[in-house]
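Lab notebook: predicted structure, single chain.

Context: the supervisor wants predicted structures on file for every construct in the current expression panel, including those that have not yet been purified. This is the next one on the list. No modifications to the sequence; it matches the entry in the shared construct table.
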Amino acid sequence: MPKAASYHGFPEMPEIDDLVDALFTDPPEVRWRVIRMLLRIEDSETINAVRQKLHSRIASFRGKMDWRVQTRLQLAMKTIQRPVRVNGYAVVKGKGAFTTDELVAADYELNKLDTVKAKPDIYPVVEFHVHPKMPDLKFLSDLRKAGISHAVLLATDSDPEDVDRPEIQDKLKKNFERSRFAESMSADKFLNTVRASLYSTTHVTDQDVADWVSDYPEMLFGFGSVNLSKSRQYVEEKLEYIEKLGLRGIKLLPYSQFFNPADNDNMDTLFQYCRRTGSIILSHSGCAAGPFEDPELSQDSRPELWEPLVKKYPDVRLVLAHFASYSSRLPGIWFTQAVALGKKYSNVYADISAVQYLLEDKEKIEHIRKGIGFDQLLFATDYPGPIYFGIEISEVVNKIKANPHITEEEKVALLGGNAQKILEIK
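Prediction complete. Output recorded below exactly as produced.
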């Protein structure tokens, strides 16, 4: 690979025909493997050749195609239309992002890079909530610019076909009738909107997450995801698969996996698995995007529903994503519940992804301090969420570092100290 390239240390790229074939023939649960390879192609001639081959293959395809493969092809088409480049940075397999100056200083000998990598400042920073939907170069250079040493990548196990299960459809229709959507659309249109939201073109699977972690094991941790509304057999097999992949936690989305934590038959199976493996549970809390912005459709994401479980399993850590506060209409919607639950149970944590505004409010800071405490708070941004609004992760980090209402000890704990402890980062 030439020294000016953006990716170093990776195996040689497969032939174009093999890349295109894999987009059709890879198992549906392998979403990003070939996409990430396509993103490493830097010359326009090769990109054009891939584009032509893919167009031709799609046009000649006959027969029924798995809907997950269809969305993989959509993502591939988008990828080769707009390659992503980041000036001044390159990615090294097994290590992460480095500046081009560092690569020059190491004379492009990859084993020397650790000696030239910039040392972190007094604040160790760990990003606890990442959806790896961006090219490695963009994602890892953003972490590097922000001084982030480690990150947690999250899978998402949601299934549009769940909407057609009678018990879930009945539940959705009842919630729909109480929601604001009932005034502007039919129930059928609403159900189609929900289906479309459950498997976007940037959906990430357990295998995807494991692939990213295997490429950068020194800096990334992976959490798988399991849909607890499905059968006991499905849950047990999924947990066995997640353990086999070596993933360190479980990501849950009660609102889009259609389960109530306080009333689900698979909860003991999950918590016993986490007790045995030391896995961490990270569950969405608060409202969510799309149709789930309405509180009536996100009721299963209330923190209070977790109390019987965190009481029964004090040795299993539960992280409430978004501090139960995300809501475009009612910001801070279940913040008080999250603070109260964390004060009562030391195994309950909260991450601040997408709700960093909480730390700009002196009253909320004091509420946190007297309740759950900064020792149970985790830095997170919901990456790539901030960049959709023109905000760099480094800006989020620097704002916390400069916050005059948070002590230095609290900043160290929040930005990385707490995450280092529960992830056992040396």
